[in-house]
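ingest -> validate -> predict -> emit
validate: passed (alphabet ok, no gaps, 454 aa)
predict: started
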Amino acid sequence: MPDAHIPPDGGLDRLADLMARARAHGADSADAVMFESTSLSLSVRHGRPEELERAESTDVGLRVFVGQRSAIVSATSLDPRGFDLLAERAVAMARVVPEDRFGGIGDADAPFDAAIGAALDLDDPAGEPEAAALEARAAAAEAAGLAVHGVTNSDGGSAGYRRSRISLVSSRGFAGSYARTSHSVSAVLLAGAGTSMQRDYDYHSTVHLADLDDPALIGARAGGRAVARLDPVRPKTATLPVVYDPRVAGSLLGHLLGAINGASIARGTSFLKDRMGTRILPEGFTLRDDPRRVRGGASRPFDGEGMATEARALVEDGMLVSWVLDGRSGRQLGLASTGNASRGTSGSPSPSTTNVTLSPGRLTPAELMADIGEGIYVTELMGNAVNGLTGDYSRGAAGFMIRDGALAEPVAEFTIAGNLLEMYASLAAADDLVLRRGMDSPTLRVHPLMVAGG
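emit:
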């Protein structure tokens, strides 16, 4: 059953009323968005509950346009008694700001078909769990981690639940709403003692409880990772092949997505701004954004401007084929929105992706590393010294040496550096893609990078 505090689609009527008040006060066009949520989280340390938190929130945003001038106001209540004042303030603000010739509400001009949202299966009917159920999940994760030989301490296990409803109405006639749930479990374990202590984690989040990993598996993985990191050394400075574990390989996708974001392209601040229609990844690689994935963690039936979403390739067979666009960046570039607008209640929409995947290769991770005499396997990245204009890349890292095609001693306190254009051109992928994080990649191999260590 839906949480009682989140209204049914009658909330759309109130948003339409708010928007109508804005039009009455002089707005030429307007849209209104509402985010409502309930969340419950609980953490356990050494078997004892440490923190239980339940929160409910309502956030409303109104965006108005007077000609090419716009303003946004937000509130934490959908009380109609405050609508006139909210609308009047928004219009007054819009009249005194500079014009934006690329501004405007989304082009969506029809009510949303609720059946499309229902088909995505984003609202778990299991409902909000009892606190005791969350405690049991968190405790099971921590206990399994503490049972791993070599684990000496715990930073705790945690479990959480969240349900939210997103509603949007625009003066062009769009009106839509959908709900989303999430269930999560995490564990953080420590191994060793004193200055040689090492920490690691595991985490899983799903839309439906039925898809969530067994908490004991999550804890055991976290504990095993912490133990494996004990007694790291600094690698020697050298130019070496680097292999990215799947849980950090997604960061390479993140840098690419930032470089093809429509806002960056329109500003001319991306190292990929002149690469549309050219090869940026090796043949066979496809990078997809799929907002229509059933039970997808970032799925959505419409974007932040009411545009219908659709799955699309961003890179296909290695060729860059699409920017990531909202309405404004699309108008700047003379293109249509790709349905990738994202927004909150107090800021303008901006382009963003949803469920992103990089296609897997045909080799197992072991086969991908088999011919590496000496290399680095990266499991953790720190810092973010990436130059968006040039693609120059430098990150702090930790992981393991690769020797004769196999993982060897743990390493830490080193930096890997290169240029993203060259790194992308040299990618090789394993066959171990798992849809788990929302930005999912198989194990990736890059040739070669500068490794600055001892």
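Residues 1-6 have pLDDT under 50 and may be disordered.
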